[in-house]
Amino acid sequence: MKDNRVSKVLKKMKENNIPQMIVSDPLSIFYLTGFLLNPGERLYALCLKENGDHKLFVNALFPIEEDLGVEKVIFSDTDDSVAVVAKYMEKGQTIGVDKNWPARFVLALMDLCPDSKFVNSSFIVDTSRMYKDDEEKQLMRNVSIMNDKACEEIIGRITGDKTEKQIADELINLYKEMGAEGLSFDPIIGMAANGANPHGEPGDRYAQPGDAIIVDIGCKKDMYCSDMTRTVFWKEVSEKGKEVYDIVVEANRRGIEASKPGARFCDIDAACRDYITEKGYGEYFTHRTGHHIGLEDHDYGDVSSVNTDVAEPGMIFSIEPGIYLPGDFGVRIEDLVLITEDGCEVLNSYTKDLQVIGND
After folding, report:
1. Which terminus of the chain has fewer CB atoms gathered within 10 Å of its CB, N or C?
2. Residue 17 pairs with which residues in a beta bridge?
3. What does the pLDDT look like over 140-179, one tens digit per residue?
4. With the CA atoms of 31, 182, 62 and 124 taken in that order, what torsion angle do they form, in degrees rounded to the nearest 10?
5. Is 101 in the same domain as 234?
């Protein structure tokens, strides 16, 4: 068990009057134990208790040889797995459960523990994961450096005879060559009007002169995710393209400047959004400014106009303003920032200068 992380979680359980909690998200279990298992449809859960009598429930199909610092409770496919869990619950006491634990498990446990109150306790581990320790910070730096290199390489490989989909497939192969463990998310390569869809899927379009090309990419390394976006132009760029690009880059800069301890996330969002609105494109910035990131590309928490929580040291999130002109083109620039004691550290270093490619 990761004792420091478990201690933080137990403290939050006590503060929220949750004496026992079932953690079922494999990534959250990894966060707390250092061990990853993907159980498919089978029950897999870590039960944490204020009194320290923790249990890891795992099917015999998945032998765990490692000493994880927690007692393992083994069951088979022919056992009633929920009944096994219920045996160890303190009846009549509140039971916290993960937000994504399947209904077939939680409803069955509710039937077996009718005198217990059940609450969604995911926020306890989710909010703990928001604060990266020194090990996590370095892993996030490392994977972001890898992503910077991949971004530079794939932009250099864009040619007029490759479709969006072919470029995305080439990026996936590039990540493998670089030693990445997988994707943070499916890459977004969006040319011209397809780039005006913030989450557009790569298709069969070839770059045409003047096209803006959104490159939104991320990979995983040592379990942690990267995420960045750059926008380049093919062969030439119009005055309108330059104008929109310059606005988005400045909005990104302002968002980064606003990212510091004590700043409300809604104010960081406003630093980007208000500038874009001031320049006449407010209606075309159609999404929140950012999201937290770590073991998942979209970890718990966001940078949005309605989030009044404040940034604190150890948090890592994206700053990704964009302008999307339907039927025409889109521009998005995204960096990850790590909140420090007196400001923020930007984890991406690949240039944000306007690039017109394809003229070599």
Report:
1. C
2. none
3. 999 999 999 999 999 999 999 999 999 999 999 999 999 9
4. 20
5. no
CA-CA-CA-CA dihedral for 218, 234, 276, 316, to nearest 10? 10
Residue 137 backbone dihedrals phi, psi, to 5 degrees? -60, -45
Contacts of 31 (CB under 8 A, 6+ apart): 2, 5, 125, 128, 129, 295
Dump pLDDT digits (tens) for 266-311: 999 999 999 999 999 999 999 999 999 999 999 999 999 999 999 9
Structural domain including 98 reads 3-129
Q: Around Cβ 344, how many Cβ atoms within 10 Å? A: 26
Any bridge partners for residue 97, and if so which? Answer: 22, 120
Q: In whole angstroms, what is the distance from residue 189 CA to residue 170 CA?
A: 11
Which is it for the CA torsion 151, 155, 157, 162, positive or negative?
positive
Structure tokens at 57: 């429930």
Domain CATH number, residue 311 = 3.90.230.10
Collect all residues with Cβ–Cβ distance below 8 Å to 147 and sequence separation of at least 6: 217, 218, 219, 226, 227, 228, 348
Residues 154 and 59 in one domain: no
Alpha-carbon gap, residue 70 to 92, rounded angstroms: 24
Rg of the chain on CA atoms, in Å: 23
Contacting residues for 190 by C-beta, under 8 A, at least 6 apart: 164, 196, 197, 200, 202, 213, 214, 216, 330
Same domain for 304 and 202, yes or no, is yes
**CA distances (Å), origin 156, targets 151, 160, 166, 210, 321:** 8, 12, 14, 17, 24
Residues 167 and 63 reside in one and the same domain: no
Nearest to 259 by CA among 290, 236, 284: 290
Nearest to 320 by CA among 261, 259, 279: 259
